[in-house]
Amino acid sequence: MRRLPPLTSLKAFEAAARHQNFTRAATELHVTQAAISHQVKQLEEWLGMKLFERRGHALTLTPDGRAYLPDVAEALDRLTAATERLTSRTLAGPLRITVLPSFAAKWLMPRLSRFHAAHPEIELDLVSTEESWDFSSKHFDLGIRLGHGRWSGLQADLIAQEWLTPMCSPALNARKPLQMPSDLRQHPLLHDTPRDGWSRWLELVETPAVDARKGSGFTDSSLALQAAIDGHGVLLGRLFLAADDIAAGRLLTPYRQRLKNDFSYWQVYPKASALKPRIMAFRSWLLAEAATCQS
Description:
Blueprint: H1 7-19, H2 22-29, H3 33-47, E1 52-55, E2 58-61, H4 63-91, E3 93-99, H5 101-108, H6 112-118, E4 122-128, H7 135-138, E5 142-147, E6 154-167, H8 170-175, E7 189-191, H9 197-204, E8 216-217, H10 221-229, E9 234-238, H11 239-247, E10 259-270, H12 277-294
Parallel strand pairs: 3-4, 3-5, 7-8, 7-9
Antiparallel strand pairs: 1-2, 5-10, 6-9, 6-10
């Protein structure tokens, strides 16, 4: 009989060691930070040795942890490869997904080639819609929605909490720099849905002198972001959707204050379908991509 520690503890150790952070390991493995901490502690007790040193907020491997990590990582890689070879036949086939238009355009499509590279056997059928269609009647497998995470009969996995902050093109900011919130009076405001976002952000920064009612409005976030990129004004934009534009320098965020939106992005699917290989593959890939984007 093989004497081995629990697989969940080994996975928690490998992820925590790779990220050097329990929170990011928890995000990758779709568990809580407390669960990662418990599983690592369980492994340390099983082995009778410390694997991590905690110095303030920093997490580093002990000499024993550094010695153990390469073998654990290799073993998990080999298990993963063997499992993928065995399940490749059940992975093959279509996966029907409903997705918000702005999420598809600004975040999903630029990353989708990585999913196709990892799972060429899965054929994605994407339907862009704002509607929350019934999965059974429309024969969809999975959906990406904006909301509170509560839909009857559906499992909901948090993709990203949504934060709002002012953003604009570098050219617009160069003409009339945005240094204080009151400088917003010099520029048109652009409104994404919901339109009360500007008034809430201005209340957050205690700047009532700016008229939050002025400016153009958009019901599609990708159009609102493009308007900001083109220099039509300052947008109270969605940071998650704007991540690539900010990284590429097409947009900048002049203020550090961020407003937490009431809604978040969720990945939803019928609870009865949670263990279907194609859903599991897309779910894991999407959550890993989202975690990387936010780290």
